Amino acid sequence: MSLYNALTYHTERAVTFTYVIVALIWLVCVVLGSLPLLGWNCLRDEASCSVCRPVTKNNAVALAVTFLLVFALMMQLYFLICKIALRHAQQIAVQHHFVSISTTKGVSTLSAILCTFAVCWIPFAMYSIVADSSYPIIYTYATVLPATCNSVINPIIYAFRNPDIQKSLWLACCGCIPTNFSLRPRTSSDV
User: In this structure, how many other beta carbons lie within 10 angstroms of the beta carbon of residue 154?
Assistant: First the structure.
């Protein structure tokens, strides 16, 4: 809705409503994340354990399938967002007689983030569906490691795409800014 009505979105949706929705999402995540601690686990019946102990095989499959469904929904929503953003950028470019490179840069950054997310998390989700506790633990580690590294990779992607972060990294690492570094004015699509 904020993409279609960007200028009036703030008046149509109250800030309180947004905070309530975000708080509810966090609450649901905390409750679901604490279920294994609250007794929904396989510690009493080792045969029902999944590769993600203490989560049961059925719960692991449910989580993996839910993850894949949410990921598909996420891809659909981001596709629609990118389509609308590109259409708006083209309309603005026609009005101002220029081509916006920053919009395509934002779309390519978003694509890199989503592809990285998929490459890191889908192997673990698929493995959780097919594996059981009798599989060698090394397979679990091999699929969990990329999933946990996803949080480290995202800032690196942003760092290579955002001139402000690049400048800060240069200052932090070597105390200087390269002479060929672009100090062009920033736009809202620089991500």
Answer: 15
